[in-house]
Amino acid sequence: MKNFYKLLGLRVRAERKKLGLTQEELAEKVGITGNFIGHIERGDKKASLDTLINLADALEIPIGNLFSEVKYEPKKEDLLLKKLVSTVRDKEPTDKKLILKLAKLVLKKK
Q1: Residue 59, exposed/middle/buried by CB under 10 A (0-12, 13-18, 19+)?
Q2: Whole-model pTM?
Q3: Domain range summary for the chain, segments of one domain joined by +
């Protein structure tokens, strides 16, 4: 996930430089500190949705452009968990309880 914020920050920096703005100038337009712009550009801190909207406005781009090169890939464990949940989701409550008991037994043996 950290990579996500680094890529987002690089995109903000590239767009800022296209407009010839300093971090301080962009910060003033957005209503945040230049220091926080630096953190966003390095991927050190997470911007709120409101801040991202204001950044896009200040950079004169659609907000989607901030994410054009940013790709989020869930961890493999997340995908496996989603697969498990989708497999069990529509089963009867008694089947769900049985599956839970079986899972606990399997995990207990490890």
Answers
A1: buried
A2: 0.64
A3: 2-67, 76-108
